[in-house]
Amino acid sequence: MKMFIPIKENSQRVHRKNFRILNGEPLYKHILLKYSDFEVYVDTDSEEIITEIGNDSRLNNVKVY
User: Fold this and answer.
1) What is the pLDDT of residues 7-49, one digit of tens each?
2) What pLDDT, on the 0 to 100 scale, is given for residue 12?
3) Got the DSSP string for 1-65?
4) Which of 1, 17, 23, 61 could form a disulfide with 11, with the two C-beta atoms 3.0–4.6 Å apart?
5) CA distances, 1 to each of 23, 43, 57, 60 (Å)
6) Beta-carbon neighbour count of residue 14 at 10 Å?
């Protein structure tokens, strides 16, 4: 299965929501790690997310645009 997930750097209501740490990982990584058995495509405006996904070997199934 293929999944498309948009992840914004800035949220209007909660500042840096996707970067909030939960159990040692940012929120966006929890979402991506949950779908590790799928082909995941992420659309983001964040250079930080692009870099972090590229550096995390657990996210080899994720392609970032």
Assistant:
1) 999 888 998 999 999 999 999 999 999 999 999 999 999 999 9
2) 87
3) -EEEEEE-S--SSSTTGGG-EETTEEHHHHHHHHTTTSEEEEEES-HHHHHHHHH-GGGTTEEE-
4) 17
5) 27, 17, 20, 15
6) 10
